[in-house]
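[step 3/7] inverse_fold.run input=structure_tokens len=170
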């Protein structure tokens, strides 16, 4: 097993972990809101901290899911033209898409320190520092960057990434 295959397997572990974390965020959000709605119906008083925690959990769920979405290649693609142009077009479009994603992730990670500096203070009724909201986003960006580097290496080697179909194959 090569180092590229090992890194790809580690990314698979991260994908499963992030999938579980995103689902856990959703489950906690739903649970908190069900309890809050029930309490409002029974006692005519709600839990004031449920909404801010729901917002935090929703943001985290979205950012954890960001990596999972790209790892599973569930992003939106339009392949009908590339499919008709053959193997060379598939290869070229794969490299083009990978390059664009790598540039976008680089830009996001380049700006991460400045974004962290701007996120000071605590989130009201939650008690967490504001930067904790964006931490899953930047971790996902790092993982997406690594995933697309690995995919580019596989593309140049003429292989599909193990465990994933071709880009755009849903």
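[step 3/7] decode complete -> sequence:
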């Amino acid at each position: 097993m090569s180092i590229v295959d090992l890194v790809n397997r580690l990314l698979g572990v991260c994908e499963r972990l992030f999938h579980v974390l995103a689902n856990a965020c959703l489950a906690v959000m739903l649970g908190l809101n069900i309890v809050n709605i029930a309490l409002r119906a029974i006692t005519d008083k709600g839990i004031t901290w449920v909404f801010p925690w729901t917002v935090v959990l929703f943001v985290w769920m979205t950012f954890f899911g960001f990596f999972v979405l790209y790892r599973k290649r569930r992003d939106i693609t339009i392949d009908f033209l590339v499919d008709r142009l053959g193997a060379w077009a598939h290869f070229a479009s794969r490299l083009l898409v990978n390059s664009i994603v790598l540039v976008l992730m680089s830009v996001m990670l380049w700006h991460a320190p400045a974004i962290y500096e701007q996120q000071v203070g605590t989130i009201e009724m939650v008690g967490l520092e504001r930067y904790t909201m964006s931490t899953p986003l930047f971790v996902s960006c790092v993982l997406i960057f690594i995933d697309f580097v690995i995919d580019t290496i596989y593309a140049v080697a003429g292989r599909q990434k193990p465990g994933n179909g071709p880009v755009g194959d849903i």
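[step 4/7] annotate
The two ends are 27 Å apart (CA to CA).
The CA atoms of residues 151 and 161 lie 6 Å apart.
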